[in-house]
Amino acid sequence: MARVHKPVDEHYSEAAAGSRLALGRLLTLVERGGPEADQLSELAHQDTGRAHVVGITGAPGAGKSTLTGQLVHRYVDAGRRPAVLAVDPSSPLTGGAILGDRIRMYDVSEVETGQGAPAPDDMSADRRPFIRSMATRGHSGGLALAVPLAVRLFDAVGYDPVIIETVGVGQVEVDVVGAADTAVVVATPGMGDAVQANKAGLLEVADIFVVNKADRPGANDVRRDLELMLDLSHMTGLDTMERGDADYRPPIVMSSALDGTGAENVIAAIDDHLVYLGQSDRLRRRREHRVRTEVRARLKQALDRRVDDLLATDEGRAMVAKAEQADLSPTEVATALLDILFE
Ligand SMILES: Nc1nc2c(ncn2[C@@H]2O[C@H](COP(=O)(O)OP(=O)(O)OP(=O)(O)O)[C@@H](O)[C@H]2O)c(=O)[nH]1
Ligand SMILES: [Mg+2]
Question: What does the alpha-carbon distance between residue 321 and residue 113 come to, in Å, rounded to a whole number?
Fold first, then answer.
């Protein structure tokens, strides 16, 4: 009788040998978090560092998925093996909306559903892109832990590039995209996108701007707005801090993802950026930043757990009771508990 739960390392070997089903299962573990994800993290860590990690963000409806689909087609045609991770931080479940996204993004027969969709005849299993959406499902640490691990997993089993698509322009998106090798920010005409992106801090993390829906009126205005904002950010010395270089100016690429116009230029800009990173030790620094971000998230999660554990002990409860009875202020209680935590 077949075992229901294969050990993580078996799944990992199978995924490394090209099994999409095994990879799908592992990604589910990643999404869930916990000891199995930790074990996977150790396994995958050995084999990483080859993939170009590309983050794509921008306001809802900007055309990120459509553009990603165009890029994926071209990467496959060029003999690359792309993977896409579509990240939705707000969605508690991997739901219909993102599934719809996946289908729009790429011919459904080529999309990994985890159910082992058959390979189209003209494309060997090896060359099919792997597209997966991910929601946090509320596990502690959430996306901050799940996304980097999923990216490392894709990298370890041989996908390149690994594209992360996020929804929206909030802090989570900035973090996720900021951890990529190359961050692409998609803006569109008529949505005040340039201003939005600026406010959300995306100007600082963007390595490439894409003005999508260039077939619509106002596309050149968006380009001009972005140019102006870049001028301004250079003048004020507002810069990329630990991620980047003061002398780097992101290119602005026009695109109409609906028919693929400009997609080649987006790919060229992404390739150029990797070349740029390869000069001096920029790529190494950026990846160091990514590792630091992940370690920080791990630490926070571990501390969170210890705090919860401590509060659940008799000692913790007694201390909290003191604050409730107004003997001590919450600050004093917290300080005392901190001492216990680190003693
Ligand atoms: N006119 C025009 N429409 C586009 C273009 N690119 C995408 N669209 C349309 O814009 C809508 C949103 O496209 P998506 O690719 O789903 O956008 P998204 O940024 O992935 O959206 P979310 O994932 O919901 O944030 C769809 O109806 C697309 O067909 C474009 O270049 N021109
Ligand atoms: Mg999308």
Answer: 50
CATH number given to 47-281 = 3.40.50.300
Residue 246 burial (CB count, 10 A): 9
For a mutational test of ligand 1's pocket, the pick from 56, 65, 66, i.e. the residue with the most ligand atoms closer than 8 A to its C-beta, is 66
Which token pair is 118?
A: 């058959």
CA of 118 to the centre of ligand 2 (A): 24
Q: Which atom of ligand 1 is nearest to the CA of 261?
A: 31
| pTM recorded for the entire structure | 0.84
Residue carrying the six token digits 């390595």: 207
**Cβ atoms of residues 187 and 62 within 8 Å:** yes
What number of other Cβ atoms are within 10 A of residue 125's Cβ?
10
Residue nearest to atom 25 of ligand 1 (CA): 60
What are the residue boundaries of the structural domains of the chain, listed by start?
47-281, 298-342
Rounded to the nearest angstrom, the distance between the alpha carbon of 266 and the centre of ligand 1 is 16
- Name residues contacting ligand 1 (CB within 6 A): 58, 60-66, 101, 104, 167, 212-213, 215-216, 256-258
Among all bound ligands, the one having the nearest atom to the CA of 266 is 1
Distance 168 CA to ligand 2 centre (A): 9
pLDDT of residue 196: 67
Taking Cα atoms as reference points, which of 205, 230, 233 lies closest to residue 293? 205
Q: What is the DSSP letter of 50?
A: -
Tokens of 81: 């093996």
- For residue 49, the number of C-alpha atoms closer than 13 Å in the C-beta half-sphere is 9
| Torsion sign (Cα): 266, 270, 273, 275 | negative
Task: Quote the CA–CA distance of 58 and 263 in Å, as a whole number.
Answer: 16
CA 136 to chain centre: 12
- State pLDDT tens for residues 205-260: 889 999 999 999 999 999 998 898 888 876 554 444 445 566 788 999 999 999 99
Tell me the β-bridge partners of 134: 87
